[in-house]
Amino acid sequence: MKRGIEILDYFFLTRPILFYPIWTFFLAGWFGGTHFSNSSNSFLNIPLAVIFQLTILMGSIFIINQIQDVETDRLNGKLFLVANGIVSKRSAYLEAAIFASIAIVWGFLMSTIIGILFILLFILSGLLYNYSPFMWKNKPIMGLITNGTGGMLIYLIGWSAGGGKGLPLLVLPYTFAGVSVYLNTTVPDIKGDKKAGKITFPVRFGVKSTALWALIFEAAVVVTSFFMREWILFIPALIAFPFFIMSVFDTSVSKIMLCTKLSIAALALSICVVAPYYLVLLVFIFFFSRWYYKKRFNFEYPSLRVS
Hints:
The chain is mostly helical. It has 15 helices and no strands.
């Protein structure tokens, strides 16, 4: 049985740094939902129970993804908890199953709509994305669609938690934002993905085309958020837009990752304007993760560097 810092392996197996865009999209949806329902959007009223459910659900999905990506993760030299056998596949499956079950059951107890959205998110991003005969993570267009739709569902979960009804048009710019960031995140892994036979968007169409389509979707974010007066998204998208333009002309991994990190950070900080305590959580997870990876593996992660 693991003791001391090793017990944290099971927490970091959920990839908490990836919770940033999850929490951000949720809070953006929640903020929009409170406006629709004319309810209070004070950060004191943020539905923490729903955020917790969503977090453990996405944690289970991220674990499943690592189990299925053992070979590519090993080739790309990252996510070594499962890839290097530090956490067994059996333990990882058990953790994913427990987390997903708790989230979905608890989601239905809170709200039928949220429970349904949780199931859709798990089926799409957990099962269809990772398992045969679908395995959409290995298909460039379906991988793009899956990640865009996943971002849309997360926004809708926040929207419903905030009292919003129906399918809001506001979900469009957030869907485009999810696709834009996803495209750029596939670029650093291109070498390992090629060796493992994984056909991601840049493997199929090339890095320059990937950067161009990321720019196109980012432009769609800027335009749609402006006309919908979604300033909480428009301002960070506008700040990041010039960097997306530069990445088309300089397709180095460092420039493309700069777009990714800037997009995620700018939107997260924008959300902090309406939910100030969110900044505390962001800072805590960042430094807690750095401490864990340094102490456990003598590895500096996460990093603000893009080179």
